[in-house]
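Supplementary Note 3. Input sequence used for the single-chain structure prediction.
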Amino acid sequence: MTDALIAVALLLVAVTATAAVLNHEPLRQALVLSFLGLALALLFAFVQAPDVGLSQLAVGSAVTPLMIVLTVRKVRRGPGGGEARRDDRGEEDR
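The predicted structure, written as discrete structure tokens, is reproduced below.
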């Protein structure tokens, strides 16, 4: 039974990793990367490595996709962020 679960988890990891590579949209890649992190955490739990699975769950499923989404958002906004900034003297800088 355990071997079957490991095989299914490996298949799920392979499918989600392939989907992450084949996506061209960065936001979709981040979403698929989150699912890949979940699949890897499941695989680690099945192979009796719960500490590695918990680390993967935190970093691979939450932190890394969040950093990608925030970076893409910042890059699409541009260097100024779309808003006028004021310096210390109260003058606008565009």
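The helical segments are 2-22, 26-46, 50-77. The chain has a mean pLDDT of 87.
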